[in-house]
């Protein structure tokens, strides 16, 4: 184990020392030439009658002194570089020194920024693995138990159908989560490609509402407003569906999809976001999030919001969140005061009536 961890370090150290020595040799040569050549010219032109052997001896002395001066000065010039290299190899290079030139300070900043980005990527990679282990394991375990019950227990036909429906539901949930993870990873690495065409936004939200109506058990799902905009209907449908599914998950009594002059609003009477949108809409965030008493580990809660935001940005708009004052009381019980509504706005440019 120790050999595996130290083997790459020794060649890297040798390469660093070789590169530093080469750079110092180049500096030494430049200083030597700048100091030695004028001495050669002055000596030859000033004392033409001096014997050749004496001139050669003098040139040898002058050349040695110039080489020594060049070597010492090059070491002084490269001292900050050598110090930075040693600190980088030790992993402790964030603190600048008073004699650091601006170029070395810039290198320190660049190295620190690189380490920060690597740390962020490592954290997201760890969170991605945590998502795989935690969130995919739950439906897989449930499916395994249901399959075992279906194949080993003498269930009546009605119960067998119910177990089969549960297996189908868990499979659908698993596939949806895998698709969201794949989309979030792809949208994080590359731009979202859209093909804009004139789109009837009311028809699009009507389609989403009709498709999600079976999930609105015990809650009302309404649609209002009209408008047209340049959009990619297939991609935009995915964004509106993500927002509507999220709203149905947390709404108490009702969800409304509205076409406005700004774009498409999805409003519900749920508890709202527990943190700022910019914090939650991050894929594979390592921080757990609790919404309506349910904890989501490793950024699962932010996958859908991140996808919606990237789709909105690809259309030239954005995703906004706020708490809106209620219109009509959502609860017919007059003793229950109306609460502020959760409102997401998928902003689109140039929406026309």
Automatic annotation (TrEMBL):
Membrane topology, from the record: Multi-pass membrane protein
Swiss-Prot/TrEMBL keywords: Cell membrane, Kinase, Membrane, Phosphoprotein, Transferase, Transmembrane, Transmembrane helix, Two-component regulatory system, Virulence
Reaction(s) catalysed by this chain's protein: ATP + protein L-histidine = ADP + protein N-phospho-L-histidine
CDD domains tied to this protein: HATPase, HisKA
Keyword hit for Acyltransferase: no
Transmembrane segments: 23-44, 56-78
Histidine kinase domain span: 131-352
InterPro entries: 2C_sensor_his_kinase, HATPase_C_sf, HATPase_dom, His_kinase_dom, HisK_dim/P_dom, HisK_dim/P_sf, Sig_transdc_His_kin-like_C
PANTHER family per the UniProt record, alphabetical: SENSOR PROTEIN CREC
Designated name of the protein: histidine kinase
Species: Deinococcus caeni
Gene coding for it: sasA_10
């Amino acid at each position: 184990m120790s050999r595996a961890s130290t083997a790459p370090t020794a060649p890297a150290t040798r390469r660093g020392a070789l590169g530093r020595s080469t750079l110092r040799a180049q500096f030494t040569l430049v200083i030597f030439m700048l100091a030695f050549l004028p001495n050669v010219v002055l000596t030859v032109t000033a004392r033409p009658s001096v014997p050749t052997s004496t001139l050669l001896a003098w040139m040898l002395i002058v050349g040695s002194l110039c080489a020594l001066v060049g070597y010492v000065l090059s070491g002084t010039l490269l001292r900050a570089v050598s110090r930075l290299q040693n600190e980088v190899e030790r992993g402790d290079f964030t603190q600048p020194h008073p004699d650091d030139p601006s170029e070395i300070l810039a290198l320190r900043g660049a190295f620190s920024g690189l380490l920060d980005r690597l740390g962020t990527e490592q954290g997201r990679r760890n969170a991605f693995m945590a998502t795989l282990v935690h969130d995919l394991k739950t439906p897989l375990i449930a499916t395994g138990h249901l399959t075992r019950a279906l194949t080993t227990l003498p269930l009546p036909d009605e119960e067998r159908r119910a177990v089969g429906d549960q297996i189908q539901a868990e499979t659908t949930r698993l596939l949806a989560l895998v698709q969201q993870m794949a989309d979030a990873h792809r949208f994080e690495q590359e731009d979202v490609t859209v093909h804009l065409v004139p789109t009837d936004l009311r028809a699009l939200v009507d389609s989403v509402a009709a498709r999600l109506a079976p999930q609105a058990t015990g809650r009302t799902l309404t649609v209002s407003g009209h408008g047209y905009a340049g959009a990619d209907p297939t991609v935009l449908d995915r964004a509106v569906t993500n927002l509507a599914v999220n709203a149905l998950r947390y709404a108490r009594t009702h969800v409304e999809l509205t076409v406005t002059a700004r774009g498409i609003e999805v409003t519900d009477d749920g508890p709202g976001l527990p943190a700022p949108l910019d914090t939650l809409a991050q894929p594979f965030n390592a921080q757990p999030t609790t919404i309506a008493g349910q904890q989501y580990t490793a950024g699962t809660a932010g996958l859908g919001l991140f996808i919606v935001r990237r789709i909105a940005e690809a259309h030239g708009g954005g995703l906004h969140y706020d708490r809106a004052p209620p219109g009509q009381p959502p609860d017919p019980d007059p003793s229950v005061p109306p609460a502020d509504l959760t409102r997401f706005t998928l902003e689109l440019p140039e929406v026309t009536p």
